[in-house]
């Protein structure tokens, strides 16, 4: 076996771990965004409940204004009724007063209904806010864990980069260049074992000439099908 082969195998192990950690680090922003998305539904529920409560409050306010307007009208009509000396006018005013009083009764009944609806809306809002707070706590914990995970990955990548540089320095530059180009292109492995006359990368049958080249161990031997560097398992 060529002296560079064990070194390249060690280097590849570091490169594979670096690539896996880089992918992990790249995925963290997506995981953070996904965690934050958990809040969207609960936030929408709180907003809807709050809007519903405010709409009811506006209805109650409008009813109260309508009641106040009619009570003012009743007071005005009662004053006019007190001042009139005509029976027909007195009776007409009395009829108007009763109509306004009926309106007030109906409005007050409606106000009671809206007050009951308001209590229900307040409970709904409180429940929605409690659920949002619970989700927020969980999301905050998830985000904190992801931040800590990111820092840990970055630190490990720094350590691996140092290890890689140390492992790469004694390797023949041409061999290192070939390995690096293949590793970048293939994305999984640049140097693989040959077992049972098959390439450990593409699993295609290795021709006799390649096997002989591996046995002679004169130079790096590549798989004719995938181009990966081959080595024999001893």
Short recap of the structure:
The protein has 234 residues and is mainly α. 79% of the residues lie in helices and 6% in strands. It is built from 4 helices and 4 strands, in the order H-H-H-E-E-H-E-E.
What does this structure look like?
- The protein is mainly α.
- The protein has 2 domains: about 5-170, Orthogonal Bundle (Helix Hairpins), CATH 1.10.287; about 170-234, no CATH class.
- The chain is built from 4 helices and 4 strands.
- The protein has helices at about 5-85, 85-170, 175-185, 210-215, and strands at about 190-195, 200, 220, 230.
- A 4-stranded mixed sheet has the order 2-1-4-3.
- Strand 1 and strand 2 (about 200) form a beta hairpin.
- Helix 1 packs antiparallel against helix 2.
- The longest helix has about 80 residues, at about 85-170.
- It is rod-shaped, with a radius of gyration of 41 Å.
Mean pLDDT: 95
| Overall body shape | rod-shaped
Q: Provide the CATH architecture of the largest domain.
A: Orthogonal Bundle
Order of helical and strand elements: HHHEEHEE
Q: What is the percent of helical residues?
A: over 70%
Q: What's the N-to-C terminus distance?
A: 9 Å
Number of domains: 2
Strand order of the largest sheet: 2-1-4-3
Q: What structural class is derived from the secondary structure elements?
A: mainly alpha
